[in-house]
Amino acid sequence: MYRALWLSPLRFIVSSSSSKLTPYVSRGRGLSGIDNGAGCSCSRSVTTMIGNEFIRCQDESKILQLQIVDALRSGERQGASALLFKLIQGNYSLSADDFHDILYYCARSPDPVFVMETYSVMCKKEISLDSRSLLFIVKSLCNGGHLDKASEFIHAVREDDRISPLLPIYNFFLGACARTRSVYHASKCLELMDQRRVGKNGITYVALLKLAVFQRNLSTVNDIWKHYVNHYNLDILSLRRFIWSFTRLGDLKSAYELLQHMVYLALRGEFFVKSNRGKLHSTRLYIPVPSKDETGSEKFAFGVTDRIVDCNSSSKVALPKGHNKILAIRVLRWSFNDVIHACGQSKNSELAEQLMLQMQNLGLLPSSHTYDGFIRAVAFPEGYEYGMTLLKVMQQQNLKPYDSTLATVAAYCSKALQVDLAEHLLDQISECSYSYPFNNLLAAYDSLDQPERAVRVLARMKELKLRPDMRTYELLFSLFGNVNAPYEEGNMLSQVDCCKRINAIEMDMMRNGFQHSPISRLNVLRALGAEGMVNEMIRHLQKAENLSAHSNMYLGTPTYNIVLHSLLEANETDMVINIFKRMKSCGCPADVATYNIMIDCCSLIHSYKSACALVSMMIRDGFSPKAVTFTALMKVITKYLITILKVCCHCFSRTCYK
Description:
By secondary structure, the protein is mainly α. Among the domains are: 1-165, Serine Threonine Protein Phosphatase 5, Tetratricopeptide repeat, CATH 1.25.40; 402-467; 468-588; 590-658. Helices cover 64% and strands 3% of the residues. The protein is built from 30 helices and six strands. It has helices spanning 51-73, 77-88, 100-108, 112-124, 131-143, 147-155, 167-180, 183-195, 202-214, 218-231, 236-248, 252-267, 296-299, 325-346, 349-362, 368-378, 384-396, 403-415, 419-427, 436-447, 451-463, 470-480, 492-511, 518-530, 534-550, 557-569, 573-585, 592-605, 608-620, 627-657, and strands at 6-7, 10-14, 21-25, 157-158, 273-276, 279-282. The strands form three sheets. The protein has a two-stranded antiparallel sheet. A two-stranded antiparallel ribbon has the order 2-3. A two-stranded antiparallel ribbon has the order 5-6. Helix 20 (436-447) runs parallel beside helix 22 and helix 22 (470-480) runs antiparallel to helix 23 (492-511). The protein is elongated, with a radius of gyration of 37 Å. 36% of the residues are buried.
């Protein structure tokens, strides 16, 4: 089905002053860049060698290739270049075969610069490339990050009846595009394959699926699936790749149905998988011949019932014996793990439990990776005990839990305020790249008002070289901003200590490249207000207002409420009124808490008229007075009546005196 391909002459000049690879394309008709490997198609003198002379030249060429590779391994590039020059100066005929070892090493290293130097030498000696040489060059360029140059080589390939199909070259290039997430180069390669009528095989579809998953494009995965089932028969290895794609994109339903179809094939003994150099390959031939009597949608349709294996059955089902049963079990376990992890992402505990039961019925032993996804699916903050039970089960099965598994259970324990369990689990973690389990524990200590225990958490994070995130700093301001115990008034010593703590946290936050968030700013203002540091609190508020003005945003209502409440506690009524006016002038809406604070302020200044006006504004803004509102209003009325009573008494006493 493949059309024959050939490569036009492509010359590269490697600049000695730059590492960039500059191509020069020659369009001469007398040269062919690729042949079938039998020799060179250009005109050059050919020396006929027989017997021992031919073997001697072959051995000498092989020895020089090995010496060049050894020189490259030891970092002696000048020596390797000298040996390469010696190789082409020999008095014997050379072909592309005499450079395979060099090009193969450059592909594995990778060493794109030396591979281009080798190719330049081959061009000077008018030595044609064969299919293997081209594959090694493309591999070296792709592995070295030069997709543009590799693409130029591939685009230089044209149709020629003498050349066999070069699908592995296209597949490797697409695989490199998938690894580097280069959608542009992949689309160009696919267009070229369509133009040249180059088919696809399983490796091609793997690369396309990876690109689709990177783009988060579920519709593309569905299109690839439809095209695949229309041209190929399904096996467990191909199903495993599609299951991986659907789970990464959150299509749990499709992934589950494909998993059940995989189990159906495995129970029938249709394994079709082998291992080669540590990689799994399908033993089926990929012959893209569409069936005449049924389409792909009829071969497999999502939602079929006759191929869904009963997950709720408690009876064990043994997989049939076969040559590749062990490999098939490995593939099945991988796919079960993918779907169980998808259940963990969507918190589908019911399906996760069904899949664990099905694994047991099939004789598939859960691994640590299996439990990692299963615990995410079934353990919730209110059911952290189940997570601890599963950790004990893993211990009984001699399975070491992943660090992510311990972190997940520790986070659930922290949310349930089981801080001792959470701290014990976090102490067992050897490596962690995310701070959320430690943040949850800090939040639990904040709720329990135990800042002294939070110090150990910070020390543990430092020991793991874990960088704090913004949530960490928000919690640190809440934990360590307040020096005194709750309901204790601040003094001069506590205020100095509070300023030192806040400044230290702010400096560390700036060193890690973070600016104040609304929550961290609010926590700082709350801490300063609790210590009675009015001037410092107003300074932080003004700084936040200036930053918000530059970003065309206003501070949140909770921030102003914290400041207003702290000023009211300090009997700074004039400042309360000024801040309220600034709040209204900048367009920040007031809420119920704001109006209650201001009505309380009216009770201090004995302004019954202002309190009534605030109640009117509150109702006009759509807020209904609450019990707290009426309590504050009664304070105002009581003090207003007391004032009136005092005036009446004074007037009455003066009248009596006269």
